[in-house]
Amino acid sequence: MLLKTFGWSFAVTALGLVAAVLYGGWEAFGIVAILSILEISLSFDNAVVNAGILKKMSAFWQKIFLTVGVLIAVFGMRLVFPVVIVAISAKIGPIDAVDLALNDKDQYQQLVTDAHPSIAAFGGMFLLMIFLDFIFEDRDIQWLRWIERPLAKLGKVDMLSVCIALIVLLITSFTFAAHAHQHGGAHADKAETVLISGIAGLITYMVVGGLSGYFEDKLEEEEEREHEEEEEAARTGKKRSPVVLAGQAAFFMFLYLEVLDASFSFDGVIGAFAITNDIVLMALGLGIGAMYVRSLTVYLVRQGTLDDYVYLEHGAHYAIGALAVILMVTIQYQINEVITGLVGVVLIGWSFLSSVRRNRALAAAEGKAQGSDEKTEVSSGV
Questions:
Q1: What CA–CA distance (Å, rounded) separates 74 from 84?
Q2: Contact 366, 213 (CB under 8 A)
Q3: How far is CA 98 from the centre of its chain?
Q4: Measured distance CA(138)–CA(154) in Å, rounded
Q5: Where would you find the membrane-spanning parts of this chain (predicted)?
Q6: CA of residue 58 relative to chain centroid, distance
Q7: Which of 93, 138, 147, 177 has its CA 20 to 30 A from that of 19?
Q8: Spatial separation of the C-alpha atoms in residues 67 and 63, rounded to whole Å
């Protein structure tokens, strides 16, 4: 099971490390290995959240996520995305941007760094919306009840998460603008870009997430009426097939997963520049890490880990909220990637331990109940 799920990840790791040695020797090997570990540590919460969505999808779409999705994640976000950002920010053609990435690495790194405020605003807002919608939803299972109960009541207010996200964005952009003016206004013109990028992240979340949720709800409605209307659908031919609708639902959930992965990858791509500004090594290291994150996602689904450890999804969403805040803060201040990774690991580890304690308590309670029943049967027999 482990080899079947992680087999491709192991193969990609071997190929990636060999390619690194051939490209830049053993120093490149070490850099790629470090980048792989960085990506995995920063994206573990991504795997948990992805698993919560992927478990609703068929085996076919899970394979699509592991194949086509990996190509999008590795080549799209870890290789093409930084080049596109440089092309847009520097107002140069994509070919010139690639040439810059390969032949003038310092200038390339500077351009990506300059584009960081808009990248962080987009990703931060997208992730913040995921966290807010999760925390404001009333759930049967609650982890930190003293926080989640009152917030679930507040969540009954329509559009509250959107309002809070917009307030956070306004405060961030105004603070960024004020700070830029105090220090000579070098980035004052980017305050507007931050605002626009943040709104774009919010709109992206609402459109993709909304379509995914819409088709998922439609799919559930179709499944409930399937038995009652099956004969009528076959006779008239007018009823839309549940199979087609399932495909639509899965497609939009897949699209949502890809946008989610893109938002998670922002901090990894930016953080990678602290280790190297070589785009080839960056793509190799982050690509290997992305492959493990995807394999881990499928592993969590197939093992039913989220069902066994019910607080894991909570911990992952709290980690998402923390990452969103960190991204928004990094628009103005620099935060070490180690801190970013540790926050996620601590929150998920805490939620895992809480799940283990809950399972033990339930098992103990069930054992006491069975013992009590046996005593009652014995006394009744006597």
A1: 14
A2: no
A3: 27
A4: 10
A5: 7-26, 32-53, 65-90, 118-136, 157-181, 193-215, 243-264, 270-294, 315-333, 339-356
A6: 20
A7: 93
A8: 6
375: number of Cβ within 10 Å: 10
Q: What pLDDT digit, counting tens, does each position of 141-197 carry?
A: 888 888 888 888 888 888 889 999 999 999 888 887 776 666 655 555 677 888 888
Distance separating alpha carbons of residues 166 and 239, to the nearest angstrom: 41
Distance of CA 91 to the CA centre of its chain: 29
Task: Find all residues with CB under 8 Å of 141, minimum gap 6, and list them.
Answer: 310, 311
Nearest in space to 347 (alpha carbons), one of 373, 380, 324: 324
- Cα separation, 273 vs 78, in Å, equals 12
User: From CA 19, how far away is CA 216, in angstroms rounded?
Assistant: 42
Which token pair is 35? 């980048």
Tokens describing residue 151: 């917030």
0.90 exceeded by pTM: no
Q: Are 274 and 337 in contact (CB under 8 A)?
A: yes
Query: DSSP alpha helices (H): ranges in 237-311?
Result: 242-272, 279-303, 305-308
Give the number of other Cβ atoms within 10 Å of residue 88's Cβ: 14
Q: Residue 324: is it exposed, middle or buried by C-beta count within 10 angstroms (0-12/13-18/19+)?
A: buried
Angle at which helix 2-54 crosses helix 59-71, to 10 degrees, equals 100
Structure tokens, 368: 């006491």
The Cα–Cα gap between 148 and 244 comes to: 37
Distance CA 119, CA 115 (A): 6
pLDDT < 70 regions, the chain:
1-2, 41-45, 74-75, 89, 179-189, 212-213, 215-216, 218-249, 263-275, 337, 341, 371-382
Question: Can you read off the two tokens belonging to residue 296?
Answer: 């881990």
